[in-house]
Amino acid sequence: MSRVDRTSAARPVTGPLLGRCPIVPVVVLADAADALPMGEALLAGGVDVVEITLRTPAALDGIRRLAALPGMRVGAGSVVRPDQVDRVVDAGAAFVVSPGTSAAVLDRARARSVPALPGVATASDLMAVVARGLTEVKFFPAGLLGGPAAISALAGPFPGVSFMPSGGLDAATMAGYLALPCVPAVSGSWMVAPELLAGRRWDVVTTEAARALRLAAQARPAPRPEG
User: Fold this and answer.
1) Reaction catalysed by this chain (predicted)?
2) At what angle do helices 35-44 and 59-67 cross, to 10 degrees?
3) Where do the domains of the chain lie?
4) Is 138 a catalytic residue?
């Protein structure tokens, strides 16, 4: 590898992403027509970041519609191939999230100048992404990997890394993660559950989003006194 190649590989492919909102709803969208009212309902509850997963045919159109909503930052989840990076960025995605770590996806995200949040599960995964200059990762599937205790253990050797736990979180378990200083945000689907979207229960989406933000504020570690 040339000297230029080594420098390029060390450049971060993600900037600060997780500090914007402590709750990142993960949406499996069945109908693209629901994207805009869902986004408006989340904004009404104070949540201004959302992840649309590439698990349904409606995902790309949903991203496109939400990208036009003022005040909302929409990203794409379940991005596992570099061609998907192109498709979601062209649709308006402001960031990409993956369940694991793919060099090809990270390279394409860098080429498209879009933040990427790779999934990690082990210390080896973290070593690989840190070597590429990343400082923010998705910890997935958090519940099965040991929850807050596992993140706390991994954070020791990687003090500069911020984690977004995903998988198995809900309103009852999120506080244990957000109490960790290395966890600025969590992701989950309970406030945008498929049954809420199918029933177009936008009032419940707003209520659950606002409740999640209140719980997040209560879970934050108290600031250390100066001096």
Assistant:
1) 2-dehydro-3-deoxy-6-phospho-D-gluconate = D-glyceraldehyde 3-phosphate + pyruvate
2) 50
3) 3-219
4) yes
